[in-house]
Amino acid sequence: MLYSAQQVDARITEMANEIVHRYSSKDVVFVSLLNGAAPFASKLMFAIQKCDPKFHPNAQSMIVSRYGASREPGKLRVVTDLPPEYRELNGRTAVVIDDLIDAGGTTDFARQHLIGYGASEVDLIVLVKKDKQLAIDRLVTMFAFLRLMNG
User: Fold this and answer.
1) Is the dihedral of CA 22, 55, 113, 86 positive or negative?
2) What is the reported pLDDT for 134?
3) What's the whole-model pTM score?
C-alpha cells in the first residue's frame, strides 16, 4: 500500500478546497470519465459540498474507451457522451475528473472532445498519476494530482 485511506481522503479534502476557491466564480461543468473515476468523483463531490455547501458543482459523465467488447485495444472513442443539453460548452470551463493518468491519451482525447463542444478551457483533476520515468511502469508515485490543461 502506497497511501493509507486517511492520506487519500485528506488530499481529496485539500483538492475540494482548491476547487471551490478556483471555480466558485466560473461557469464550470465537471466531467467524470467513467467507469473508473466514479468512486473518486463521488468522494470529491461530497468533499466539495462539505467544504462549501453553497457551491453546487454541475457534475456530468462520459465514457471514453479504446477497448471493444472483446477487450482488444483499438482507437479511442466516445462510448457514452455528455447529455445533449451539456454539449454546448461555448465559453465555459470543463473540468475532467479521472482516477488514473498513465500516458495521458484518454484524458487528452476527452480534452479535445470538450474543446470541440466549445469549452474555453479544459482542466484535469486526477487521483493517481503513474511515474513513466521509472523503470517499473506500474509504480504509482503521486496521488490526488491536480494538473491544469488549458486549451
Assistant:
1) negative
2) 46
3) 0.82
> Closest Cα partner for 48 from 19, 79, 73?
19
Set out the domains of the chain in order of their start, with CATH numbers: 5-147 (3.40.50.2020)
What cell numbers appear for 143 in the block?
496521488
Closest CA to 29 of 108, 82, 106, 77: 82
CA distances from 122 to 4, 30, 145 (A): 30, 10, 16
Residue keyed to cell 472483446: 70
Report the pLDDT value the prediction gives residue 133, as an integer from 0 to 100: 56
Cell of 42: 463521488
> What DSSP string runs through 53-110?
TT---EEEEEEEEEE-TT--EEEEEEEEPPPGGG---TT-EEEEEEEEESSSHHHHHH
What is residue 118's DSSP assignment?
T
Query: Mean pLDDT per segment of 10 residues, for the chain of length 151 residues?
Result: 82 93 93 91 95 94 84 86 94 91 85 94 86 47 38 36
Summarize the chain as % helix, strand, coil (round to 5).
30, 35, 35
Asked if 87 and 79 touch (Cβ cutoff 8 Å), the reply is no
* Contact of 32 with 97, CB cutoff 8 Å: yes
